[in-house]
Design a protein that fits this description.
single chain, alpha+beta, Glucose Oxidase, domain 1, three-stranded antiparallel β-sheet, 10 helices, 25% helix, globular
């Protein structure tokens, strides 16, 4: 299978060809994606569904006093999408010169990265948009061409508006590995019968098989595909450079995940967040296609259209091993003013 970078280059050629035939996609305008149900001034999206009653009910899922941290380790040799990168340095060693009679010194780090879109990453309002005849359309009818959206900060599309709300919800784990009887493969065709594509029927089957209440309003839903184990934090540093490179290529070659039918079903259940152990959460096969030909269509239909955000590259293995299919999920994006997303280390309590 082609590497992700090869596919990315091919996608660019396909996109350029398509652009000649159809310059714009006006579906967001024709289908009234804006204003959202929370009004034209909303900047946070579906997390607005959270009520005190939902929080209290989710807290009742903590029965064993167990905690799982779901974030992966940020490191320069970890897999990243496309041309993104991560680099951490400690300047000076020590950074600060000795001070005072007790000779106090200190260290600081310098991190150079696409901070919202590397490793365990949250997709915020300014991450995914659509090129329309009126401009580049984002959540709730805002445009990159708006005067308050700039290259130095996305203004009303900044992730800090979601960070002000945060996520405290019923977490639902969908174990697709158990459903399929093994790690899901990268899809090879645009077909709901492809074993790498998780459909609406698969979601319903996992809920029934796992013996949990139906997915409902205010829930945060996470998919375990097994793909994330290619880059598992417990053994990553035991591999030599060549093995890490091989695994990065395998991880980035595509991904199993939700198909559009599953995403539309989850949206109909009024969830507020999706996530997975993979880099896109949704299915990504040849030319970035999923259940249909449009690359990253779940991103568009959940995030841009509905404000249902997404968190990627989660470590779900402890929850899977404990069969913790329902839990209290707690996390908030960093309040990075004007950023497209956020790093983080979410907590599951059960």
């Amino acid at each position: 299978m082609k590497t992700l970078l090869q596919s990315f280059a091919l996608l660019g050629l396909v996109a350029a060809t398509t652009a000649n035939a159809q310059e714009f996609n006006d579906e967001p305008l024709d289908d009234n994606w804006a204003p959202s149900e929370w009004g034209p001034d909303d900047k946070a999206g579906a997390v607005n569904r959270t009520t005190p009653e939902m929080v209290l009910k989710a807290m009742g899922l903590v029965r064993h006093g167990k905690v799982a941290t779901l974030g992966k380790i940020y490191a320069s040799d970890a897999p990243v999408f496309g041309e993104r990168s991560y680099r951490l340095t400690i300047p000076g060693l020590p950074t600060g010169d000795p001070m005072g009679p007790q000779q106090v010194v200190y260290n600081d780090e310098l991190v150079t990265t696409e901070i919202g879109q590397v490793g365990t990453q949250f997709d915020g309002p300014g991450h995914i948009g659509v090129r329309t005849s009126k401009g580049h359309f984002y959540y709730n009818g805002r445009y990159l061409e708006d005067p308050d959206v700039t290259g130095y900060g996305l203004g009303p599309l900044g992730v800090e508006h979601v960070g002000q709300k945060g996520f405290v919800c019923r977490g639902v784990l969908l174990d697709a590995v158990a459903l399929r009887g093994g790690t899901l493969p990268i899809p090879t065709e645009m077909n709901r019968n492809d074993r790498g594509i998780v459909t609406d029927d698969d979601v319903k089957a996992m809920v029934e098989r796992q013996g949990i209440d139906p997915i409902g309003e205010g829930d945060c839903v996470f998919l375990y595909t097994g793909h994330g184990n290619i880059w598992h934090p417990s053994d990553w540093d035991t591999f030599d450079a060549a093995e890490k490179a091989r695994r990065r290529d395998a991880f980035n070659a595509g991904s199993p995940g939700f198909g559009l039918s599953a995403c539309e079903y989850l949206a109909s259940r009024k969830i507020i967040l999706t996530g997975a152990d993979s880099w896109p959460t949704e299915a990504v096969g040849p030319n970035f296609a999923g259940e249909g030909p449009q690359p990253f269509e779940c991103h568009l239909k959940l995030q841009t259209k509905r404000g249902i955000w997404n968190i990627e590259n989660l470590d779900l293995t402890q929850l899977v091993n404990d069969k913790a299919y329902e839990f209290l999920f707690v996390w908030a994006p960093l309040k990075l003013k004007g950023a497209t997303g956020s790093p983080g280390n979410p907590i599951a309590l059960y």
